[in-house]
From TrEMBL:
GO terms for molecular function: nucleic acid binding; protein-lysine N-methyltransferase activity. Its main location: cytoplasm. Keywords: Cytoplasm, Methyltransferase, Transferase. This is EFMT1 methyltransferase.
């Protein structure tokens, strides 16, 4: 009689050890989250998904952009973050401040943020819920997921639809001309940093007198 176990592929002891280590690390991370009174809004609470071309800002950059957005939006202001979840998360850390914010994002993991999450696909720039009224945001912060004119142009349609005027765009330095062409924004002196270094030089662009110069 043949041994039934023979046709079950066996993992090498090395692979098994690596897997166990991985699961342990994951459990520890999860455990840490709960023990620290885990903040769902902190950067990194949702991990980057490179296939979606996601790269989180460094903590410092996210704070700086969030602060700029609050100042630009003014008291009781409304802020929209398009494909810029790390700025959204920083804004949420400043709870009790006098502003409101929503996140337009393709990655449905961000739906944990409830009502403020709006599913967004730049290929359908105006496919937005009815309650997002035109020109109802004091400032729109956008970080188009891809460095292509097509992506910028389509995201620009959404930005122009939502903003009352102020725009803060984060994208590659190579997009300077297209950014001026599609949104009338100029490069700031402020250099945004990411939590991992990107190959492309990254810059911020605005169309108003900002604190980023």
């Amino acid at each position: 009689k043949m041994d039934d176990d023979d046709d079950i592929p066996q993992l090498s002891s090395h692979t098994l050890a690596a897997l166990q280590e991985f699961y342990l690390e994951q459990q520890q991370r999860e455990g840490m989250k709960t023990s620290q009174g885990f903040n769902q809004y902190s950067i990194g609470s949702i991990e980057e998904d490179w296939q979606l071309s996601q790269f989180w800002y460094s903590d410092e950059t996210a704070s700086c952009l969030a602060k700029e957005a609050v100042l630009a939006a003014g008291k009781g202001g409304r802020i929209a973050c398009i494909s810029a979840p790390s700025v959204y998360q920083k804004l949420k850390e400043q709870d009790g401040e006098d502003f409101s914010v929503c996140i337009l994002e393709y990655d449905r993991r961000f739906s944990v943020y409830g009502e403020e999450f709006i599913f967004y696909d730049y290929n359908h720039p105006l496919d937005l819920p009815e309650n997002l009224l035109p020109h109802s945001f004091d400032i729109v912060i956008a970080d188009p997921p891809y460095l292509s004119e097509e992506c910028l142009q389509k995201t620009a349609e959404t930005i122009k639809y939502l903003t009352k005027g102020k725009i803060l765009l984060c994208t590659g330095a190579v997009m300077e001309e297209q950014a001026a062409k599609h949104l009338g924004v100029k490069m700031c002196k402020f250099i945004p940093k990411h939590s991992r270094n990107l190959a492309n030089e990254f810059r911020c662009y605005v169309n108003y007198a900002s604190g980023l110069d």
